[in-house]
Write a structure and sequence with these properties.
This protein is 55% helix and 9% strand. It is built from 21 helices and 9 strands. The protein has a 9-stranded mixed beta sheet.
């Protein structure tokens, strides 16, 4: 099932910032991320990309990272902090309930101002409100009310009515009526919130809201831990805060911002969210209107080992680069021969635009040989032509997509080849530099003069293709079937033969006359078949005209691709040479420039080590002695490129981890998590 993580931009930015560590949790996750703007007035403003994200599926779930407005409170989901108005002894039961109703309605209105309520109101509904007026409790209330108002009839009945208004059943009815009023009012408030959102979309099957909590109320915890409570006494915060019934609540305890380990705790929170996003919860893990605390139990020794090894690998890479600096300063640059200089700096690059492997252009063309002498020979021509033209049109659609695909692959080749190796450019002598400059000027002028053909504009040829198709269909409509041809031929031959009967009788059955008559009939038949062959030739010629138009499209596409290939090749050659020319313009020695590049890589690694040391203060052990030769990052550090230094955890292996329930396990791409658990937090009003 698709999982959509809805979070503020700051959280999504942190996931990208800590991608080096969080990558194992995201690489195989079927999760999408949508930015949440809490100030939005409607769904399109709150989560602009949500509808497009879920439009491809009817089954999805949402994980919302709540705002930090009440992060330091015991229950960050209780935004309005409602307390029912205390009953007043001088007021009647109905008056006290009305007083309580007003306070609750005020809390509902206050809750509707909260961003989380606005967001979730679009993602789910409140239960349908059914009228209480048909219930037994209401009919009983109406009956006794009418008896007391009329005050006539049986005294025992009047007495029962008076007793009813003093009984618990009357109070039960009033409570029931209050619940109805509250449900109606909630429904009205929700309609007001969602009235400006007209587009419908499939609602999520599950909504989990996870909030960070920094709560330090130790004394309160000690006090409440000795008290006994019943489940029906659990806090009604979900009711007061206008949360929809489908919403589930999860907390994650995190250290205060000023704590030294806060950044790691925040990363722990993020990968807990990503684990929830990548794995569906076991059934009945989260109950409605209850708050749960999520905890990821780590094996700190394994995590420390991974991070320490990574730090030592970075340090070893730094030392290797420093050795390269020393070697660079000790070695004198070697002069290049003319051939070596031309091979390195004056050699053209070639960027080719290629069709996909296995693509067959023959399917573009219709096959005239499928059409015989008659309408139904060797197969029904309407079916054959429909098959041919459908195949051709479909193939043309695929064919016209090929240039865009080829261009995207060519641009990737362009990106890889347009960076030259300027490490030896300062080894050139004056004559070699002059030759290189001439080559670079030539490439620049050619890249400016080259004008690639547009392979997207084929409207004129498409019109010719449609005309050719219509000509073929006209030819097909005028063809005769075999049965009709034979009947027409036999009828014509018979009439033709009958016309010779008087002549044959008058000639008194001379053999020459009979032979002449038979020859004339055979000539008629022969001419008929010649006409069939002529008509078939014209039909096939019309189909060949269709194929010729298709061939024009093919030639235009190929010419455009060759033109783009030439343009990209010239531009790539120029840009590649320009990187070396920039080095010449700096007017520094090859040794100094190479040392600058080495130092740039050392600075990148040092910055990464320092950031990791801050985040994982308690896990990186730099006092461990080296155990043999340490592997380094095998990059070409002579090139000024931004390299990635991935943190390898578990070497891509999957580790089974206990997930929420003791008998339920999931597989994670890390091995330092022991288990993930949920426990219900006890909140009582």
């Amino acid at each position: 099932m698709l999982t959509v993580v809805i979070a503020e931009q700051s959280h999504l930015d942190l996931i990208r910032e800590y991608d080096l560590f969080l990558h194992p949790f995201t690489e195989n996750s079927n999760a999408e991320f949508c930015v949440w703007n809490p100030q939005g007035e409607n769904l399109s403003e709150c989560v602009p990309t949500l509808k497009d994200t879920v439009s491809r599926t009817s089954s999805w779930r949402a994980i919302i990272i709540a705002d930090d407005g009440l992060r330091r409170s015991k229950n960050p989901f209780d935004k309005v902090r409602h307390k029912d108005a205390l009953p007043d002894e001088i007021l009647s039961c109905e008056q006290n309930l009305e007083k309580r109703r007003d306070s609750r309605f005020s809390s509902f209105r206050e809750a509707c101002k909260q961003p989380l309520v606005k967001l979730t109101s679009y993602l789910g509904d409140f239960p349908t409100v059914t009228s209480f007026q048909d219930s037994f409790l209401h009919r009983e209330f109406v009956t006794y009310t009418k008896i007391l108002e009329e005050n006539t009839g049986d005294p025992d009945v009047i007495k029962d009515a008076k007793e009813y208004f003093e009984s618990e059943k009357y109070k039960e009815y009033l409570e029931y009526r209050e619940h109805y009023y509250e449900a109606v009012y909630k429904s009205e408030l929700k309609d007001e919130l969602t009235s400006d959102e007209g587009d419908e979309f499939f609602k999520p099957e599950e909504i989990i809201c996870i909030a960070r909590r920094t709560f330090t109320g130790v004394q309160e915890e000690i006090k409440t831990s000795w008290e006994s409570h019943h489940s029906f006494e659990y806090s009604n915060f979900a009711d007061y805060n206008m949360y929809i019934p489908k919403l589930r609540y999860v907390l994650f305890d995190i250290l205060p911002d000023e704590h030294i380990n806060y950044r790691f705790d925040n990363i722990k929170f993020l990968y807990a969210v990503l684990i929830l996003a990548g794995n569906e919860l076991p059934q009945d893990s989260l109950h409605p209107e209850r708050v749960y605390v999520l905890n990821c139990e780590n094996d700190e020794e394994i995590l420390s080992d991974h991070l320490s090894r990574f730090d030592r690998k970075l340090l070893a890479t730094q030392n290797s680069i420093r050795a390269g600096i020393r070697a660079c300063k000790e070695n004198r640059p070697e002069r290049l021969t003319t051939k070596e200089a031309r091979d390195i700096f004056c050699t053209d690059t070639h960027i080719s635009l290629r069709f996909e492997k296995g693509y067959n252009e023959e399917t573009l063309y219709v096959r005239p040989k499928r059409f015989g002498l008659f309408r139904e020979n060797p197969e029904p021509q309407n079916i054959a032509w429909s098959d041919e033209i459908t195949r051709s049109r479909k193939s043309l659609t695929d064919f016209l997509r090929q240039p865009q695909k080829a261009l995207s692959f060519a641009c990737e080749d362009f990106r890889l080849q347009n960076e030259g190796d300027p490490s030896k450019v300062l080894n050139l002598n004056r004559h070699q530099i002059d030759e290189f400059k001439e080559y670079l000027n030539l490439k620049e002028s050619r890249s400016v003069e080259e004008r690639p053909l547009d392979f997207a504009n084929t409207d004129k040829i498409h019109k010719e293709l449609e005309e050719s198709e219509e000509n073929v269909e006209e030819r097909l409509d005028g063809r005769i079937n075999r049965k009709g041809f034979l009947i027409s031929l036999l009828s014509a031959a018979l009439l033709y033969a009958v016309s010779f009967v008087p002549f044959l009788i008058k000639a008194e059955f001379e053999p020459l006359g009979w032979i002449s008559s038979l020859g004339a009939v055979l000539l008629l038949i022969l001419i008929s078949f010649v006409c069939l062959f002529v008509f078939r030739y014209k039909l096939r010629k019309t189909m060949k005209a269709y194929n010729e138009v298709m061939e024009k499209i093919s030639e235009k596409i190929h010419a455009s691709m060759e033109s783009f290939s030439a343009y990209l090749s010239e531009l790539c050659s120029f840009m590649r040479g320009n990187t070396s020319d920039n080095v010449l313009a700096e007017e520094i020695s090859a040794t100094e420039r190479q040392c600058r590049i080495y130092n740039k890589h050392i600075a990148d690694i040092q910055e990464l080590r320092e950031n990791f040391a801050i985040i994982f203060t308690d896990f990186i052990n730099r006092d461990v002695p080296d155990e043999g030769e340490i592997e380094i990052f095998d990059y070409d550090f002579r090139i000024p490129r931004n390299y990635e230094y991935p943190l390898v955890i578990n070497n891509g292996m999957l580790t089974p981890v206990e997930y929420i329930q003791p008998d339920f396990k999931i597989e994670l791409g890390v091995d330092f998590i022991r288990k993930i658990e949920l426990r219900m937090e006890e909140f009582y009003d």
